[in-house]
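>> received
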Amino acid sequence: MMIEVPRDLPKQTPRFVDLLSMAWPDLTTADVIVASLSDCLRHNRDAAAVLRYFESIGMPVRQLDDLLTISSKSDEEELFSRRVVEGVAITIGSDGTWVLFRP
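>> returned
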């Protein structure tokens, strides 16, 4: 499933709630998985299997910025990531899940 990314996203770093309301107005923050990346790494937890997916394509995640590298891949159709004030937001194309990774 191809992720439809709106072309008019702001260049400055938005708050997560603002990103949702601009780009995906039908979603609310109640629909979002919120996870601490440091806790996920320390306790081997994986919010929505995002970290496992990165590992499977040879892009292990060790810090928040690693989550942003997925959007630079021209052939990536499963995940879209975006820096937000709170951390990094990721949407999963195959099921529409949103994950907000905080530090």
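>> Residues 51 and 61 are 6 Å apart (CA to CA).
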